[in-house]
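Hello,

Following up on my earlier ticket. Below are the three sequence lines again, exactly as submitted.
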Amino acid sequence: MNKPIKALNARSATGKISNEAFLNRVMFLVLIVLFALASIFIDKYFSTATALNLIANNWYIVILGIGVTFLLVSGHLDMSVGGIVGMAGVLSAYFTQPANEGFSELGQGLGLPYGVAILLTLLVCLFIGMLNALFIAKMRVASIIVTLGTMSIARGIGQVAALGAQRSAGLPDLFGVIGNVPLFGPIKIAAAIAAILVVIALFIEKKTSFGRRTYLIGANREAARLSGVKVELHIGLLYMLSALLAGITGILLASEMKAGISTRGAGFEFNALVVTLLGGASIDGGVGSVLGMVIGALILGVVSSAAYGLLLRPEWQFILKAVVTFLAIIAQRYLLDRRNK
Amino acid sequence: METNVLQIKGLVKDFPGVRAVNDVCFDIKRNVVHCLVGENGAGKSTLIKILTGACERTCGSILLNGEEYCARSPKDARDKGISTLFQELNVVDQLTVEENLTLGIEDTTFGFLHKTDKIKKIIDVLKDLEPSINPKERVGRLSVAKKQIIEIAKAVASETEIIIMDEPTAALSESEIERLFTIVKRLREKGVTVIYISHRLDEIFTLGDYVTVMRDGMHVATKPIAEVKDRTELVHLMIGRTVIESYVPKEEQSDEVLLTCKDVCNHKLKNVSFNVKRGEIVGFYGLIGAGKTELARAIYGADSYSGEIVLKGEKLKGTPEKAIKAGIALVPEERRTQGLFTLLTIKHNISAMNLKKISKLGLLNSSQERATAKNYIEQLNIKTDSMDKETSKLSGGNQQKVVFSKCLFANADLLILDEPTRGIDVGAKAEIYAIVRELVANGKTIMFFSSELPEILHSCDRIFLLYEGEIKAELQNGKDIDSQDIIHIVTGGAAS
Amino acid sequence: MSSNCTPASLRAQKAKRIVKEIYVYIILLAVVTVLSLLKGDLFQRGNFLFPPNIANLLRMSAPILMISSAFTLIFITGNIDLSVGSTLSLTTVVHAILVLNGFPFALSLVIVVALGVLLGSVNGFLVMKLRITPVIATLITMNAYQGLARYLVPPGISSITTTDTLKMPEWMGHFSKDQVFMGLSWAFIVAIVLLIALVILQKRTLFGKYLVAVGGNRTAAELSGINVVKVVWGVYILLGAISALAGVARASYLLIGEPYTGVGAETEAIIACLLGGTVFTGGEGSVVKSFVGAIIIVCLTFGLKSVIPEYWQLLAKGAVLVFAVVLNHLLSKEAIAA
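Thanks for your patience. The regenerated structure is below:
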């Protein structure tokens, strides 16, 4: 009985890589090619500055992408992350602003220490995540409908708290620190936080039973249930995780600008979804990876900066994003179909 | 005009790893009720699917009125003269009875619907079958039986030369069945040929003119009903040589009761009570719709129920997750939709039910996972070149072995097997039986749910017979067991 | 089956069915009652129920009424179209450009509706032919159409409007602002005609029946020989065309081509349909009730604006959506009578 096992090992060592690794490699190649093309056609594009900016300008989408990737792997959408980014920024400012009278209404907050303010903000974000969890996991309403609603609620809370404008007056210096600690060049500590979160997410995704259960649910919800996975609880946790990450993003962005702006993060939900899809995830669930998402975010970053470098009008960003996503979906499906024939 | 309306010649259908229909040849005469019988997996359904255009044949020919016949879709089949009453309910709940009856055959002017005699005629057919159905009622509010009748009415009203009825009485009551029979006889008088498929052998003797028996994808016999002596002969044709000799009784029986079910009821089950002793293989045999799957799922906690299910002296709480903790594992009826994660690899499937065992504090130990997968691939002889292969690429038998591995790894004392050999080839079936034997030898207890009598007789120590959600009889397997008695009971006859 | 047949449970079922039929009207009544009790500065003569007030409200809301009615159909087939808002934006801009460049109303209308057909058929193509999940496919086109709408507005200005060289004709507002009948505009009358047409389409035509069949039981529809691809594609095209018509009405009301005007319209349409009892998994929905649902949203938007600051709007919208989801969930479970 030992023989077949040996053969089995030998073949798996030389055998094909998994679909996920295959797609990641393809998308990495696409990233290199796009970067090369941009370097050829755009003057001074090929530089360290460009590469650094690529990281400095896209860290937030990577943080959001982590939560969205996990959800997409489990077969669910989250359109509320952009709204939560806006809300978290405003709330963190509101909680920190001094409570004393005398300032205008927009300058008056709760006067809490910054640490407490952050905790409170994240709690509110978790509450939005719980709303998603309740309706989607428990009542089984389509995730797109629910998260469109919570997107409005989150951004709505932000707008109400910012009186339809922004909160920046009277913020203590501490508020602007965490988003502005420089590391090197244009890269600030937020990018490092994103990197740490990515490493943790990669670990959770591949090395923990939590990550594994996410794949099991996405691959076959009923089989997962019959295999003893607490499906509803798990999906609920994923939505809370996604809301938490969006909250962290919002707090970091607010700190960077030293202002809580209620319109911040508009359209981020689409960007987060796009980078996840570019990374090979499918809305049908069961496939996708954080690593792919990071590559996807870099591809989107290259496309955006190249469009900027080519002096295209900013409106092109929308169209390019749509076209890139479309091409990625079609191409990935074609490649996988051919590979798995 | 030819006397044979349909001639099937050398028909073959291959699925990956399985030959579902193997060189089938027989003729169907015009203007008769032609019955088609055989056990599950005999190839009836596949044959019907080819006739209705739901799937393509591998080779062979079908002649309709002497001309080559090939349907691309059920609609195409209907246009060519064969309409079908499918086994699954194919009504739209949100439409009214009348709208359902005319779906796909409406009369329109410039896209507007209007009433014609056609609708009236179809409704007359319905009234004949079941006068109590209001044509304006929404179908969603009707019972399953009435939905079935709507489908029957639709097939009957299509006035095609041939009507195929696939288990039309599965959900009907006695009086509804009576009315259906009257309709079928009237159809025959009108010159229609009815191909009638049923597990209820009584119906075949009441209704049929001819009967074709299929077994393991092959044609066994076609003869006039008048020439069939009795049910026994039919059953013999269906299940082939008796396989009872292959059963080897266990030498020693444990008296320890592992599982007790008391008055278990739900939408399908009626006061099911029994117990299972440690180390037994207990068979549950019944036809489609007898409540086997419902019972298996209730014990596992996948469906809700009332009553009491006690395992090792402790009452089960009614979720799969708790059942697994208590030491039960289920090999579900539908492998692809309930048992397997087809997108994921073999090793990830095998560990799915017991991630705790390969992890510490939530951290997976991948070398342990690989070792586990290797172990089961070896133990159950899963044919694959790598444990990193997606399970969608395996054959049915190997997929089922992966599901078995998953359940074994869950470390259960009690394994519930629901149709464990469905859709897999003969060789793999034998392997599954061997695995079951070995498990019991290693101290496991097995509940074996199947609608194939030979495998029940082959493997099980005790057998419960189910009919319409009730346990009708309990038998000890052995030399004296009489397969005719069993068939008699599970088709609704009284237990002797 | 049999356990549900006690007289009490039958009565409960019947009551539930009646509630399901009429609750959208009750909500409308409640909203109107509450608003009429409020005194707001924005209401003319300080009262919500003052007829010119209502007429103004209805003139303003024609586009969302049109889109919501048509959106019901896409929900009935069990699909979704998130691009309606962007289609509205894009067609508003295109209509403004055409009119500004001297096109007569009728010609511009035809061109814009044709554009709507094109945009809708792209959605249908992505969903039915390329088999991209409806949510993803229409999110993609949502962004593409929104980008186009912005791109068509020249750099440096925020919307299509009278410039040094070109002047927006004075008839631009006729379609949506003129008071033709009891203070109502042409656009609103068109919305009503459209509503009637859609009701007839849903109740009396083959297409309407096939929508339900496709959304209710796709397998049954296919077995009955219905061309599911054609039916769903057709709905996307219809929705595109009607969104374009709404774009014409919107441009005429605003008098400019505003590229952001459609943002959030898809959410409003979804809320309207859910309030109207449409089942988002398919098979069930009433055009009329979605229309009423849209009127509720319009009343709330307009009414809220007059009593609390505008920045409450989004939160209110989200809350109403969640409320509608809950209501829909509670009323959707129908017991089966034997």
